[in-house]
Amino acid sequence: MAINKCYAEYAATCPIHCNLNDGTMAIVKYPNNLEGNLILFNEFISYKIAEVIGLKVPSFGICELDGRAAFGNEYASQIKSDSNAEIITSDNFGICFYSEFIRNTMPFKPFFIRDLSNLENFQLMIIFDHIIYNKDRHPGNILISPVENIFYAIDHSHVFKNQCIWDSISFEQGIASNDYCDKDIVELNSDTYESIWRTKKFDIQLAKKQAEEIQNILTPKCISDIINQLPKEWFSYISLTDLKSLEKYLNYRILNLQSVIDTIYEAKEELFHEKN
Question: Is beta strand 94-100 parallel, antiparallel or unpaired with respect to 74-75?
C-alpha cells in the first residue's frame, strides 16, 4: 500500500488516500481512528446492503495497513497532519475498510443531477438511508461523475442512528419506541433531499414497490450472511451481544419498510409545507 495523503483536516474519521498493492486508488478507513472502530462495521455493512439492493456505490473491500505502507519517503507510523499532529501510529495497523477512489467526480449539486442516467436511484438512496438510519447525507456524501453520467452514494461511517457509539441498549430502545416512524432522517438531510425532490418528485407508489422488492432481497438470511462476511479480526472490537442486536435492528427496520415509506412521504410533505 502506498499512502498519498490523509484527510485529517476535512473528515472526522481521518481517512487516507492510497494506492493498494493491486494499483487500485482507494479511500481507506483504519482501526482505532478518532471516531472508533464501529465505523468499520458501519461502512462494510452499509456498502454491502447498498450493493445487494442495487444502489450505486464505489467498489469496496478489505485491505491491510501495516508499517510497510509507504508515505513518500516515510512509513505509515510517521504520518502527520498539516498541523503536525501524528495521525497514523502502530495502533492503527490492521484490517481496514476501503472504497475505490473515483476520479473526476464532484460533490452533489442540484444543477448537475437532472440528466443523470441513474436519476431514479435517488429515491432508492433515500430508502436505503432509512434502512441504515443515515442522518449524514450531505452533498459531500454523494459524488457526481460527469464522465459516467451517474451518481455514487459514499461514506457511511455515521449510521445506525447512534452513528459510531451504538450498542444493544440503543437498538432495543429504538425498536421499543417504533423508531421507524422517526422523521429525523428527512429533517437532518433536508437540504439534500429537498434538492432531489425539486428535480425528481417522490413517487410513493414506486417507493412502495421498491420497498417490497428490497424486503424480498434483504431477508433475515441475507442480513445474517452480510454480518458473517465481516472480517474476523474486527470481532475483538465489539461484543457478540451488540452485533446480534444490530442484526435484529436491521431486520426490524426492513420488516417495517412499508411504514417507513409513509414516514418519508409525510416528512417530505411537512418539509415542503414549511418552505412554502
Answer: unpaired
Mean pLDDT by 10 residues, the chain (276 residues): 78 87 94 94 98 98 86 51 59 95 93 90 97 96 95 96 95 97 96 94 95 98 98 96 98 98 96 77
Sequence length of the chain is: 276
- CA pair distance 15, 190, nearest whole angstrom: 26
The model carries a pTM of: 0.93
**Cell numbers at 5, concatenated:** 495523503
Look at residue 146 and give its three-state secondary structure: coil
User: Kind of pairing, strands 142-145 and 106-107?
Assistant: antiparallel
Distance CA 156, CA 136 (A): 8
Instruction: List all residues 6 or more positions away from 266 whose beta carbon is below 8 Å from its beta carbon.
Output: 183
Cell readout for 58 is 464505489
Burial profile 94-124: b = 16 or more Cβ within 10 angstroms, e = fewer = bbbbbbbbbeebeebeeeebeebebbebbbb
Cα(171)–Cα(28) distance, rounded to whole angstroms?
27
